[in-house]
Each structure stands twice: as structure tokens, then as C-alpha cells.
Amino acid sequence: MSIATRRGDTGETDLLFGTRLSKCHPRVHALGEVDELNAALGLIRVFSRTPETVEICATVQQHLIPFMGQIATPPGQETRYAATHPRVLTQTEIAWLDAWVSRLESDPACQPHGWSLPGAAGSIAAAHADLARTIARRAERSLVALAATADAIPNPHLQPYLNRLSDVLWLLARHEEASPTP
Q1: For residue 142, is it within any domain?
Q2: CATH number (domain holding residue 28)
Q3: Which of 45, 51, 132, 159 is deepest in the core (most CB within 10 A)?
Q4: What is the DSSP letter of 179?
Q5: pTM
């Protein structure tokens, strides 16, 4: 089967279970922004100087799989999704991010020292982490906008997860900036 289905030529895209939506629907925006965040995390992994950063990004990418699945589930199909995709984002994943915030904040190099200037330290991974942070914030805003519609996603953990993730990404950028060049 070809990836070029041409089904999107009309300005619509598929969600799970065959539902189609306009590509400008808030649900599709949120899904696309989380997908973009996932790609940005891949860039951080490729350019990272530290095993901690690689571990965090790889785990977050695994978290984003059920996250995107929940966004791609049409309203009223949540039970069907749960039966076929048992992984969902929970408070456990948020607590995992909180633990990384605490761990990274204990490093003096990760402490705020005024405004950060992405890219100034010469670390490609840090610059990508700063970019990923802004994508996470945009994805969070899209989820907030989606929550204001009748198509809100019932999982209350998605928005806090993105909020916490953006904090982790800011800290990872500082962590990468402070890491020695290999």
C-alpha cells in the first residue's frame, strides 16, 4: 500500500476508526503539533551530548505515542480506543517528568541566569531543546483550545504533561549547554 493515498487532497484527514475531519479542525492542529514535537525530540536525541538527555527524549517519544492516539480518537470512541490501545498517559508519566525537573534543577548549571539565548552556547542539542520547548507550549495551547470545544479530550493528564514537558525541555537545554563537547 502506498503512503500517497490522495485522501487528503480534499482538505480532510483521517482520525482513528475511519472518522474524517477538516485539516483545519482544532483536533488536527493539536495532533500535528504533538507530532512536530515528537520530531523535534528526535533531533535532540541525535545531537545530544549526554545520556540523560537521550534517555529523557526517548522516553517522552514513547509517551507521545498513546498521547497522539488519544488526540486522534474521535469523541465517543474512547472505549473503543481503550479496548484496542491499552496505553494511556496518566499521572505516572507526569510524576516521571516532575522527578526529572527536580533532578535537573539540582544541577547548578541548569539554574536560570537571566534570559536564555537559544544557540548562544553553540550546542545544537540545546538549541533543538529550546525549539522543542516552544513546540510543546504551542501544542499545549492547541489542547487548551480543543478543550474549549465540544470535541474535548477526556484525559485530564494531557495538558499538564505538556506543561511539565516544556519545563523539562528548558532544563535540558541548559543541561546540554553546560555539557562538555565530545
Answers
A1: yes
A2: 1.20.1200.10
A3: 132
A4: S
A5: 0.90
Residue whose C-alpha is closest to residue 68's, from 88, 83, 82, 54:
88
In the chain, the amino acid numbered 69 is G
Mean pLDDT along residues 27-56: 95
Measure the CA–CA gap between 161 and 138, rounded to whole angstroms: 13
Cα dist. 133→3, 15, 43, 129 in Å? Answer: 30, 26, 13, 6
pLDDT band, very low/low/confident/very high, at 164 (cuts 50, 70, 90): very high
Range of the domain at 162: 23-106+119-178
The answer to whether the CB of 59 falls within 8 A of the CB of 165 is no
In a domain, 79, yes or no: yes
pLDDT score at 144 = 94
Q: Flag whether 112 is in a domain.
A: no
CA atoms within 13 A of residue 135's CA, in its CB half-sphere: 18
Question: What is the tally of structural domains in the chain?
Answer: 1
